[in-house]
Amino acid sequence: MDTPGLTTDETGQTYCTWRTAAPEYPRYHDSEWGVPVADDIQLYEKICLEGFQAGMAWITILRKREQFRVAFEGFDFRRVAQYGEADIARLMQDPGIVRNRAKIVSTINNARRACELVDESGSLARWLWAFEPSEDERPTQVDMAYWTGNPTSPASVRLSKALKKRGWTYVGPTTMYALMQAMGMVNDHLEGCACREQIENLRGQFKRP
């Protein structure tokens, strides 16, 4: 019988159950989710895509990710910061992305805010990683196995408030917790998942910006 939140596949390997929810998930779960990231453009992309996810399933965003990258010029935030009404109109006509005007405008706004932050702090990575939670702030394995609704954490609340204060949008506490999971700031592969130890090793080797 599988442990709550974990599923054993036909090879005998045990993984987080959500890995089985869609054909695209195994690669994302095994190779990307939880891997520490320090590249500013990758981090800006993750913030934007998590914002686009708001109110939607992550699989929808994952399936459209390559077209998002095309539409937003590889998520080069210094380029996106220059977008105007013509670009918004272009993006609203692109069937390969989520055509939500508020989220598109937010992506452009956040590119401008990212430029400001990098000019001030040196890098987006350095600023974001300062919000890495302490051990006693992280949810227990039982909490993660039984999560329902919209998980947050004290650190994601702090990050959300700090970004909002700087003018960022679509950066609520739940969205920021998803970012922390995606960028490897926390390791939420459940105990028993075949990827948990690998991610923990990567986090141990990772040089914080």
Your description of this structure?
This protein is mainly alpha-helical and 209 residues long. It has a single domain, classed as Hypothetical protein, domain 2 (Endonuclease III, domain 1, Orthogonal Bundle), CATH 1.10.340. Helices cover 53% and strands 3% of the residues. The chain has a two-stranded antiparallel sheet. The mean pLDDT is 92.
As a percent range, the share of strand residues is: under 5%
Order of secondary-structure elements: EEHHHHHHHHHHH
Return the CATH topology. Answer: Endonuclease III, domain 1
Give me the secondary-structure category: mainly alpha
CATH class: Mainly Alpha
Distance between the termini: 42 Å
Report helical residue fraction. 40-55%
At the fourth CATH level, what is the homologous superfamily? Answer: Hypothetical protein, domain 2
- For the biggest β-sheet, the strand order reads 1-2
Query: How many strands?
Result: 2
Overall 3D shape: globular
What's the overall average pLDDT, rounded?
A: 92
Could you give a short account of the major beta sheet? 2 strands, antiparallel
CATH architecture, by name, is Orthogonal Bundle
Low-confidence stretches: none
CA radius of gyration is: 17 Å
Topology:
Blueprint: E1 6-8, E2 14-16, H1 25-31, H2 40-53, H3 58-71, H4 77-80, H5 85-92, H6 101-121, H7 124-129, H8 141-145, H9 154-165, H10 173-182, H11 196-205
Antiparallel strand pairs: 1-2
Question: Which structural traits does this protein have?
Answer:
209 residues, mainly alpha, Endonuclease III, domain 1, two-stranded antiparallel sheet, 11 helices
